[in-house]
Amino acid sequence: MMDEREANELFRSYRLTGDKNLRNRLVENYFNIAEILAKKFSGRGVEYDDLLQIASEALIAGVEKFDPDLGNRFTTYVTPTITGMIKNYFRDFSRSVRLPRRVYAVAAKVREAQNEYYKETGAQPTISYIAEKLGYSEELIMEALECRAPVSLDTRVNGDDGEKDVALYDAIPAADNFENFEDAEALKTEIEKLDPTEKQVITLRYVQGKSQSEVGKILGVSQMFVSRAERKIVEKLKEALIS
What we know:
By secondary structure, the protein is an all-alpha fold. Helix content is about 65%, strand content about 0%. Strands 1-2 form a two-stranded antiparallel sheet. It is globular. Mean pLDDT is about 75; it is low at about 95-100, about 150-165 and about 170-180.
């Protein structure tokens, strides 16, 4: 794995040239982050291959957008991006859909073909490519791509610190909920106005990507306390930026 200085030089070159070979080298260099996060959330009702697919897409997006000259480390930048996409996945597929067993079987083959193609090229294959490779119609491939095991965010699971009966939504590290704020400097200014505890909650949740259970353990409070505090802080920041 290349060091941070070397990686940042590649990021700068990629931003200037758009050379996909440079992008693929960066994706390969940081692919272990996608694997670690996918493994972290596997076993909670979603297959590891699905999570790795989502994490890989987020990693590529992160590499394409990252600017090393803004002063952030890539690992710090991309972790909430990946966890955010995983969280959105749980949200988007929270409704249970019953599909034929054959579609699920095809879906497993499609995921395998996607992962093989991604490892070789650093990009996602087209529908027509997968259909030709597997010998199925494009319509069946499209149906299979939608066949991901749905899980409700209200599903009760064990928290990361062993706490029982925690909602899945609160067990997953925070998404980058501030990504839609256009004025990053204004957001930074408002965060500086928070009291020390509020700053710590925001840092642990949105910078370090820790779950509410993990934050509660660090601060010596309950997960419920962290949940309420987080909602209050986010609303406070939104109101400050909108007004």
